[in-house]
Amino acid sequence: MIPRRTFVVTAVAAALAVLAVGGALAARELYVAGKLADAAAPEAPVQRTFGAAWPDRPGPRVLLIGDSRVADWRHHLPADLAVAERGLPGETARQLTGRFEAALREARPAVVVVQAGINDLVAASLGDADHQRSAAADLRSAFALMADAAAETGTCLVLTTIVPPAEPSLLRRAVWNPAVTDHVAAANDALRRLADPPGVAVLDLAERLAPAGDLPDAFRRDTLHLTPAAYARMNDALRGHLADHPTHSCGDRDASAAL
C-alpha cells in the first residue's frame, strides 16, 4: 500500500504538471493568436518616425525599406553610399505595400531595396494548412504591387531574397514551425525565377549569407535577426549590385544619377 503522504505528494506533483502543461499550451495559443493578429493588421505592430535628410554622398540615392532586418540595418549603413532606411519591426510584405508608394514619393530615391517577407512566412507557418498555402500567393501579390508603385514613381526596384531564419532557441521552439524554412526556400526560388522587367532586379542576399541554406552562427543574432558581420556582407552585396547596374532604366529616372 502506498503511504498516504507519498500518495498526496505524487497527486500534487501530477496536478502541478498538468497545470504547467495546460499553462504552456495556453501561452502558446495566446502567442500564436497574437502573431496572426499582428500579421493580419493593416500596419506593422511597431511604428517609427524617419528623418527626411539624405547623407551628402555621391552616387544614386538608395532607400532600404522593409522589416526589422532593415530597421537594424540603420546601425550598419555603408559610409560610402547615399543610403537611408525605412524599416519597421514586425512588418509583413503585405503591410509594407500600404506605405510603399508614399515612402517613395516622400524620399524620392533613385533605387529602392526591399527586404521583406520573413514575417509573412513565420506567421503563415503558425496557421492552418490553407493559411500556409496562401502565403506564397500573398507574397507574390505584395511584390507585384511594389513593382507597380516603383514603376509609377520612376524608381528602380531591387527585391532581395529573404534571409532564412537561424535555428530557433530552446524557448522559441515551443512556438516555431520548422516548415518556415521550406517556405522561405520556396519563396526565394520564386524570386530567383523572376523575369527581369525594366527597372526591377533581384539581389540574392540569402545566397550571400546562407549559401547552404542555414544561416551561420557568425551572421545570426537570434532566430530572425542579424549580426554586424551579416550587415557588412549585405553592404558588400549592395555595392556590387550598384556597380553592376549603374544605369537601370526606371521610367524617367536614371539610377546612376543622384537627385
TrEMBL record:
Q: Where is the signal peptide?
A: 1-26
Q: Which GO terms describe its molecular function?
A: phosphatidylcholine lysophospholipase activity
Spell out the SUPFAM superfamilies in the cross-references: SGNH hydrolase
Classification via InterPro entries: Ester_Hydrolysis_Enzymes, SGNH_hydro, SGNH_hydro_sf, TAT_signal
Q: Which UniProt keywords apply?
A: Signal
The record ties this protein, via Pfam families, to:
Lipase_GDSL_2
Where is the SGNH hydrolase-type esterase domain positioned along the sequence?
Answer: 70-233
What is the protein's name according to its record? Lysophospholipase L1
